[in-house]
Amino acid sequence: MPDWLALYYDEPIEITHGEGRHVWDSAGNRYLDFFGGILTTMTAHALPEVTKAVSEQAGRIIHSSTLYLNRPMVELAERVAKVSGIPDARVFFTTSGTEANDTALLLATAYRRSNTILAMRNSYHGRSFSTVGITGNRGWSPTSLSPLQTLYVHGGVRTRGPFAELDDRAFIDACVADLRDILGHTRPPAALIAEPIQGVGGFTSPPDGLYAAFREVLEEHGVLWIADEVQTGWGRTGEHFWGWQAHARSGPPDLVTFAKGVGNGTSIGGVIARAEIMNCLDAKSISTFGGTQLTMAAGLANLTYLLEHDLQGNARRVGGLLIERLRAIAAQLPGVREVRGRGLMIGVELVKPGTDEADPQAASAVLEAAREGGLLIGKGGGHNTSALRIAPPLSLTVAEAEEGAAILERALRGTHQRY
Questions:
Q1: Of 78, 125, 97, 80, nearest to 40 (Cα)?
Q2: Per the confidence metrics, is the pTM higher than 0.90?
Q3: Per-residue pLDDT tens for 52-105?
Q4: In 3D, which of 301, 265, 394 has the Cα closest to residue 49?
Q5: Distance of alpha carbon 360 from alpha carbon 377, whole angstroms
């Protein structure tokens, strides 16, 4: 394996099986999973409805490619189009969020006949050549080479940067002014791509309405809006089914990309776009593995379970309790700068006590201590990886939220005492 393949923990663990919100490693240790394979196990580990659907589909046919008619793919596309909020929507399935964003960039640049892209500072959109080229996070951008010209705008991080001290209204106004200024100095871009809540960036987000205000400016120039919902989609934020709905005043995005959670661990990504945009390509294209029968069966079963059990509502209720619990803990610890997020997408930013300086060493130490206590979490952040990322399956119970918060509190207090 390559040297740059990242692994968590000083002594990496092998996860062998899971059930509900728990997983086990090869040494038999049991963990409460608050990261879900990077927000991918969205409903639960070994969810019977999904495993049954996958098993039954595997017994019929696993794969045939998009060159042949595929009923599960059409059925899931219809479901996704219906819940997308995009009028006259078309859906193209891929195998990952990276590929979904890559496809959205292809569509936007072809439709607009421009290779200029607007992106947010502190953003992350994938590991392919084109998505690395628009990622605004140095830690995940190994090259400056790109087929695209990328311009970065302010707004993805509310509490850091040159506009951090402004109130929400003034913050939005300043970011819009920055956007207008950029548009006045460049050829017309193809699109703005933005995560409603930045995932790898540490679960940061702008005030509600920022992207609606951006949309008004973008429409003046014919620029498309791509909402990267790879981490925020499917009700994870609790308040909304899609992250963009916190910015819905100016209507839905032109394109939405999704992946991760809808497959509950199976490889599903995709793009939703208005028909005129999706159909703009003037050459043939297929997907060998995007939309394959096995993953589509999983997606259909998973989405059905999510909607029938109101997991968005559960994310709102249990996530709200968890955020308040963590904020109460943070109030007693000078090394915690901020607890932020929505629903079951929560970031805890760590700093060196008495300063505003990021503390990546403390974040790594807390990650290790939490694992020792039986809790798996993630980490991220922009200039320095100092934010803990908490994103359990959406079926998390109140008791499990309390258990996880208690383990994390012990890890934070123990780390604070050492440092």
A1: 97
A2: yes
A3: 999 999 999 999 999 999 999 999 999 999 999 999 999 999 999 999 999 999
A4: 301
A5: 15
